[in-house]
Each structure stands twice: as C-alpha cells, then as structure tokens.
Amino acid sequence: MTYRTRNFLLGALAALICLQAPLARAAAYPERTITLVVPFAPGGPTDIIARILSESLSQSLKQSVVVENKPGAAGNVGMGQVARAKPDGYTLLLASTAIAVNPALFEKLPYDPFKDFAPISELVDAPNIVVVRADSGMKTVADLVARAKAAPGTFNYSSPGVGTKSHLTGEELKQRGGIEMTHIPYRGAGPAALAALEGTVQVASVALPAAEPLVQSGQLTGLAVTGAKRWPSLPNVPTMQEAGYPGFISETFSALFAPAGTPPEIVALLAEKCREAFANDKARQTAQAAGFEVVAGTPEQLTARMATEIPAVKALVLRAGIKIQ
C-alpha cells in the first residue's frame, strides 16, 4: 500500500466516522433523566401541559422526564436558566407566550429569544375571551364599542395582569375599536373574570377556562373569543374576526424549546415525540379541558411563529404605551 493510498483511506475512514457520529449520538439519546423546566408555579396552564408531555415522553423515550418549576420575574428566571444550560437535550424549556411577550416588556432579559433557544414544537394554543355581565345589555362587541364611545372615560376592563396576552387583547380592542377603557390588572384569570361578574369592571379579557363556566351558566356573556375559529364548547360565541376585526387573533401558546446548539437530530426526535404525545386522545381531551387546542407543530412552524409574534407584540406595546420594566 502506497503512502498516498494509506492517507486517502485514513481520510475516508475519518470522514465516515464524523458522518456517523451524529447518528450514533441520536441513537443513544436519551441515556439519563431529562429535566423539563416550567418557568411558572405548579398548577397553572403551562404546568398542566408540561405534565401531559412529561408523562408521554417518559414512556416513548424510555427515560424519566422530570418537571422542574422555576417561577419568577414573569417567567424570565426559568427561561434564563435553560438559555444557559448545556445544549445536549437533557434540559428543555416548556414556555408560554411569555417568551414572545417579555422582550417587549423588559429592558433587560437573561436570554435572547432568537439566539439562545432551539424551537422544537408549539404544543398547544388557547384563545382569550372578552366577557361582560349577562345583565349588562351588551350582547356583541359592537354593543360594547357603542356603549364605551357613548360614555368615554367610564369603562374599565380586567385582565390577569400587565403584559399577559389577555391584557394585550384588551389594548388591541381599545385601539381597533377606537374606545377608551382603563386597564385593571388582577392576580390571575379567575379573579379578573369574577371582577366582571361582581360589576367591579364592565368588561373582562381573560383566558377562556376562567370564564367559560360562567358563560355556560349564563352569568357572563361571551362577546367574542380571540382564536382563529370558534371554541367547540362555546359555539354561539363569535371570533373577533367574525365581530368585524380582520386579523384580530390573540392566543396564548405553550411550546417546547431546547438551548441553542442542541444537535438537530435530537431536536427532530423530540418534535416527533411531541406529535405522538398529543395525538393521544386522553392528552387532547385533557388539553381541551384546560382551554387549549392541540397544535403539536414542527420546529420550522414554531420558528416562524416566534419571528412573527415578537415584533407584533413589541409594536402593540409601543402603541399602547405599556411601561417597560
């Protein structure tokens, strides 16, 4: 064997090893427990989705997937932790829409939503709902707009807090309807919905699960949901688009991310397992009971949503004059 031939064969062997290394790495993954970080307290909507996913991934990947709640600073603490984690597929983030909203609300963040994360899958999304007391005399969004215009400066609306998608829904309604309403933030969607029921505020903009039982019982009137289509269990409540506001879609999503630099074959494997997890009837029913519609999309779809959502939220926050923290 000549020197040149020997070097060629050694080079070819090295190239083959390099080509097979990612495949071997993916085949071996996971070899130990995976930590799924939820940047909010236990029991909330994002945590519910995390529990569904962790149970399914534990079964399909044959390794434990442990949910770790890391609340604080509107989700920034947990998201920052994952941004700094080793990109090996063993630390994952289950984020809410906060990952797309917080860049518009905080001057400094412990992460960059584009540079520090590898999108895996948008798992579920959920519309908000605009509600009023059943005895208010308002049956449609047009009624609300007319009433608010007739009595400027007298309308208040509640939401689960500053910077939530429900808050941004209320601000978009104000801008597009040309009305004045004072925002009254509450600690959670439940108290915000009750504020409308008790008459403390005239309108509430909240996540759907908090208000749906009160709409179903006839105590609140649902003026509109903010999804792309009507909610299955509230078929008589129109969408904001049907109410005359084209393109008015405001949803809260829960999505899975990994630290940037996570091998693409691991990202692809996790995306596939996410689709399998939410193809399960029980998982779908649990998610819908919590007010979510299953998406289970691809990494490319989640990347596209982030690219659209973040600048849109920044523009809305700027127009509404919401204070940056």
The outline comes out as globular
Question: Treating each run of at least 4 consecutive H or I residues as one helix, how many helices?
Answer: 11
Are there runs of 5+ residues with pLDDT below 50, and where?
A: 7-13
Q: Which homologous superfamily in CATH is the superfamily of the largest domain?
A: Bordetella uptake gene, domain 1
Tally of discrete structural domains: 2
Polypeptide structure, described:
With 325 residues, the protein is of the alpha/beta class. The protein is built from 11 helices and 10 strands. It folds into 2 domains: 31-126 and 252-320, 3-Layer(aba) Sandwich (D-Maltodextrin-Binding Protein, domain 2); 127-225, D-Maltodextrin-Binding Protein, domain 2, CATH 3.40.190. Strands 1, 2, 3, 4, 5, 6, 7, 8, 9 and 10 form a 10-stranded mixed β-sheet that branches. Helix 6 (165-177) links the parallel strand 5 and strand 6. The longest helix has 26 residues, at 3-28. Mean pLDDT is 90; it is low at 7-13.
Question: Which descriptors apply to this entry?
Answer:
2 domains; alpha/beta; 11 helices; D-Maltodextrin-Binding Protein, domain 2; ten-stranded mixed beta sheet; 19% strand
Question: What is the fold's blueprint, element by element?
Answer:
Layout: H1 3-28, E1 34-38, H2 45-61, E2 65-69, H3 76-83, E3 91-96, H4 98-105, E4 117-133, H5 141-150, E5 156-159, H6 165-177, E6 182-185, H7 189-198, E7 203-207, H8 208-216, E8 220-225, E9 251-259, H9 264-277, H10 281-289, E10 293-294, H11 299-320
Parallel strand pairs: 1-2, 1-3, 5-6, 5-7
Antiparallel strand pairs: 3-9, 4-7, 4-8, 4-9, 4-10
Helix pairs in contact: 2-9, 4-11, 6-11, 7-8
